[in-house]
Amino acid sequence: MKLQRVLQYAQQLLKEAIEEGDTVVDATAGNGHDTLFLAQLVGDGGQVYAFDVQKSAVDATLHRLLDHSLEHRALVLHAGHEQVAKHVQKPVAAAIFNLGYLPGSNHDIITKPNTTIQAIEDLLGLLKIGGLIVLVIYHGHPGGKEERDTVIDYVSTLPQKYVHVLKYEFLNQQNDPPFVIALEKMKELPKNP
Ligand SMILES: C[S@@+](CC[C@H](N)C(=O)[O-])C[C@H]1O[C@@H](n2cnc3c(N)ncnc32)[C@H](O)[C@@H]1O
């Protein structure tokens, strides 16, 4: 028996939530690893919407898709995930966030508490029943702990009859290891639950 590592676990959750033909979201495209993974899962009938505020990340993601001849399955947007509701109109089966900065890039460009919460809120509205939002939370960098705490506070208050909230975390690893939060939509949320 080997406990699944955090990234493996996040991918396992996505695999279980996504079927061919689904609409899905990569909220933080970065170098496009998750966008590619999602594009492989949705098949030719599905659609990935990928967001990033850095042009270099958009380009890297497009290149990765092109390398695998899967560019037709994804729309890679040079836009913040807080604009998800403007761009996505169809019911969403799953979304993934990798919070923090892009390794090997500008460490000052990080995901931020307010825009992350805005995107989660809008995605909860867009999710189909049974749909999943997976957040991989990196919190070792400056600003990371503030974002971590804001996200934990927000998801902890979501009423369980509408959303199930899970945390997957190794408790004895050193150096602020990342952890996973997963939100499963159980029921349509009222405007102000
Ligand atoms: C940890 S990296 C993502 C890694 C990525 N999943 C991969 O596979 O390479 C976080 C990314 O979030 C992006 N980002 C920061 N703020 C954002 C926002 N408001 N909307 C979308 N992306 C954002 C950063 O530019 C960075 O590329």
Question: Any overview of this molecule?
Answer:
The chain is α/β, with parallel strands linked by helices. The protein has one domain (6-185): Vaccinia Virus protein VP39 (Rossmann fold, 3-Layer(aba) Sandwich), CATH 3.40.50. 34% of the residues lie in helices and 24% in strands. It contains 6 helices and 7 strands, in the order H-E-H-E-H-E-H-E-H-E-H-E-E. Strands 3-2-1-4-5-7-6 form a 7-stranded mixed beta sheet, with helices on both faces. Helix 2 links the parallel strand 1 and strand 2 (47-52). Helix 5 packs parallel to helix 6. The chain starts with 5 loop residues before the first helix and ends in an 8-residue tail after the last strand. The mean pLDDT is 97. S-adenosylmethionine (SAM) is lined by residues 27-28, 30-34, 51-54, 57, 80-82, 98, 100, 102, 109, 111, 115.
- What is the 3D form? globular
Separate helix tally: 6
The structure class reads: alpha/beta
The level-1 CATH class: Alpha Beta
How many structural domains does the protein architecture include? 1
Radius of gyration: 16 Å
Assess the beta-strand content as a share of residues. Answer: 15-25%
Q: Tell me the total number of β-strands.
A: 7
Biggest sheet, spatial arrangement of strands = 3-2-1-4-5-7-6
CATH evolutionary superfamily:
Vaccinia Virus protein VP39
GO molecular function: methyltransferase activity
GO biological process, one term: methylation
Protein name: rRNA methyltransferase
Keywords: Methyltransferase, Transferase
